[in-house]
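Help needed: design a sequence for this.
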């Protein structure tokens, strides 16, 4: 009788181990999905906008690392507390500011053409730093 109990106990332990591993896998998958969703929600959805504004929010959504490395020249760092161009697209600020929109679209086009970030910074500075 004792041998049957040991066999049953081993089976239960194996089933529990498999279940725990399965739950751990599900948890890891959900954490990764949440991280991906958070990365995509750094900005407002481009679908909320049309025209050039849509294009600017699309650049922000597709290239947040790029915009996070760029300065914004509309003055929002003073009145909005923004730290970089990406911050302009976390709210509707980018939709109401031609400078932010223009910078994002320009940066996106340059980036897609293989322009290095340092060069993009210089072009934006030259084009927008004086209210361009």
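Sure. Designed sequence:
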């Amino acid at each position: 009788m004792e041998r049957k109990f040991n066999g049953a106990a081993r089976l239960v332990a194996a089933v529990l181990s498999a279940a725990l591993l399965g739950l751990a896998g599900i948890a890891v998958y959900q954490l990764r999905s949440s991280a991906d969703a958070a990365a995509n929600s750094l900005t407002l959805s481009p679908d909320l906008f049309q025209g050039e504004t849509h294009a600017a929010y699309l650049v922000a959504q597709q290239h947040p690392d790029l915009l996070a490395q760029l300065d914004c020249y509309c003055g929002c760092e003073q009145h909005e507390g923004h730290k970089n161009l990406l911050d302009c697209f976390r709210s509707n600020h980018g939709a109401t500011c031609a400078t932010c929109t223009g910078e994002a679209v320009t940066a996106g086009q340059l980036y897609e053409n293989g322009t290095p970030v340092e060069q993009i910074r210089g072009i934006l500075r030259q084009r927008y730093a004086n209210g361009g």
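The CA atoms of residues 17 and 35 lie 27 Å apart.
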